């Protein structure tokens, strides 16, 4: 079982990139909202376990449709990328990425971290069931990181910005773009929730009731293969839930 890595490498390397989805629509990444990193399986298990999974990092972006039937529509894209399991550092603590050939040797060959597979499957299931408590899945684009290589020529400022070398790029490693509906809401933090100047007890009771209704709407629409799956769902760790 993996756990959260402390080191993040995505930063703003993918800002302003335009992604073409299988339906031909193009979406431009505009504003990065967050990033997390997830460790995969024990590296020593790679050669002997079919369940081995690579390390992964993902970033959540706001995006806008720039080509398609509803140009200007806003949505959310979660970008999931395979990353090296061990990132060497020099004596000053700066990452030393090595050559593209060295990084390519660690690529998994499109063997996704289980968090990617679970999120896509869960969003597909909830979208098909018409769940209103979660964002609708609008599309998935799967590619290899070779697509991040700088283009041979650039013609616009955005292309020039995207053409700089991405030092962590792992040729042959996967990159997955998960496109989903942008929900019209504001996040409610724990400090805000307990602020009596903002919410009375009745307000908080209403919020809890709404949360319960939404949570049950989700769990009743997901098919669980076993009692263990149901019990795990009561303590969700996956970002799709």
Keywords:
241 residues; alpha+beta; 6 helices; disordered C terminus
What does this structure look like?
The protein is of the alpha+beta class and 241 residues long. Helices cover 23% and strands 22% of the residues. The chain contains six helices and six strands, in the order E-E-E-E-H-H-E-H-E-H-H-H. It has helices at residues 100-104, 114-128, 157-162, 190-193, 201-219, 227-233, and strands spanning 18-20, 26-38, 55-67, 74-83, 137-144, 174-180. The protein has a six-stranded antiparallel sheet, covered by helices on one side. The longest helix is centred in the C-terminal third of the chain and has 19 residues, at 201-219. 22% of the residues are buried.
Structural class: alpha+beta
Strand order of the largest sheet: 1-2-3-4-6-5
Q: What is the helix/strand order?
A: EEEEHHEHEHHH
- Helical fraction: 10-25%
User: How does the major sheet shape up?
Assistant: 6 strands, antiparallel
Low-pLDDT sequence parts? 160-164, 226-241
């Amino acid at each position: 079982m993996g756990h959260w890595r402390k080191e993040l490498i995505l930063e703003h390397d993918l800002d302003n990139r335009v992604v073409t989805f299988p339906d031909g629509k193009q979406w431009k990444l505009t504003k990065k909202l967050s990033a997390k990193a997830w460790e995969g399986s024990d590296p020593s298990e790679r050669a002997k376990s079919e369940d081995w999974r690579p390390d992964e990092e993902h970033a959540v972006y706001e995006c806008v449709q720039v080509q398609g039937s509803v140009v200007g529509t806003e949505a959310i894209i979660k970008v999931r990328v395979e990353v090296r399991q061990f990132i060497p550092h020099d004596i000053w603590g700066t990452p030393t990425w090595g050559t593209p050939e060295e990084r390519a040797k660690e690529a998994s060959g499109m063997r996704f971290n289980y968090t990617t597979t679970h999120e896509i499957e869960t969003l597909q299931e909830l979208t098909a069931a018409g769940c209103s408590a979660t964002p609708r899945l609008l599309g998935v684009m799967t590619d290899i990181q070779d697509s991040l290589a700088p283009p041979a020529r650039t013609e616009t400022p955005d292309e020039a910005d995207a053409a700089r070398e991405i030092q962590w790029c792992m040729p042959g490693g996967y990159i997955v773009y998960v496109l989903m509906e942008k929900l019209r809401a504001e996040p409610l933090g724990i400090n805000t929730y307990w602020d009596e100047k903002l919410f009375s007890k009745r307000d908080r009771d209403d919020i809890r009731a709404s949360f319960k209704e939404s949570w049950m709407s989700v769990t009743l629409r997901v098919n669980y293969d076993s009692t263990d799956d149901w019990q795990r769902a009561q303590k969700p760790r996956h970002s799709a839930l």
